[in-house]
Design a protein that fits this description.
mainly alpha, globular, 63% helix, Urease accessory protein UreF
Length: 235
């Protein structure tokens, strides 16, 4: 009996580095400047310590990201690769229509535009349908899908990278707003990292009729954050 472990095909270094680069909070798209209503949750007394911050973000990952943004990203990757622009527009329009507050819509539009501007300086820019993307205008998940579409990474790899980039940004938001120390932030990130694979599998399995963006508390707090008297994050 052959008991040797199966040999897994490694993602080429160029594709792996591209995903790490795209997921980095250092990418100049402005993700670090949003708290996605976490700041309002802290102001309202709903989040005041490490455990509550971790619970909040894991819930947001599972109830929001996995069913909406990540699900759109998973479907947008093959659409860009097939140059199915009608499908890309359909996904982009759906995501923009699900933004329940002015703040949340401005976030995804601003980050989408900023990522598209960054892509114009990419060496692979001539191979990308940037004009079709700019005409949408792109939401962030749709722009991220375009940025990753020329790599050989699978849709799963791309969604995993995007989810971890979101987790890093939100962990940093928690550190600043609760506030928390760096070690607490890393423990929260570890919780999110443990939850991300299941969230990604859910996103990959989401058909059009299964996607949703029903997070009423997030919407209420985002609305309140738009006029919050004192805030660190963009509104």
């Amino acid at each position: 009996m052959n008991t040797a472990a199966p040999v897994l095909s490694a993602l080429p270094a160029s594709s792996l580095l591209k995903l790490i680069w795209l997921a980095s909070p250092a990418l100049p798209v402005g993700g670090f400047s949003y708290s996605e209503a976490l700041e309002a949750a802290v102001e309202a007394g709903l989040v005041s310590n490490e455990a509550q911050a971790g619970d909040w973000l894991v819930d947001q990952l599972q109830l929001g990201q996995a069913r909406c943004d990540l699900a759109v990203l998973a479907q947008a990757v093959p659409a860009w690769r097939e140059r199915n622009f009608a499908r890309v527009r359909e996904l982009n329009d759906w995501l923009l229509q699900t933004r329940e507050t002015h703040e949340l819509r401005l976030q995804t539009e601003q980050m989408g535009r900023s990522l598209l501007d960054w892509l114009r300086n990419d060496a692979q820019a001539p191979q990308l349908p940037l004009a079709q993307c700019a005409a949408l205008p792109p939401s962030y998940p749709v722009a991220f899908a375009l940025a990753a579409s020329l790599s050989t990474a699978t849709a799963r790899d791309i969604v995993l990278a995007c989810a971890f980039g979101w987790a890093e940004n939100m962990m940093q938001s928690a550190i600043k707003t609760v506030p928390l120390g760096q070690s607490a932030g890393q423990r929260i990130l570890a919780r999110l990292a443990d939850a991300i694979p299941q969230a990604v599998e859910h996103a990959l399995a989401c058909a059009d009729e299964d996607r949703q963006a029903f997070t009423p508390m997030l919407a209420i707090l985002s609305s309140q954050h738009e006029t919050q008297y004192s805030r660190l994050f963009r509104s």
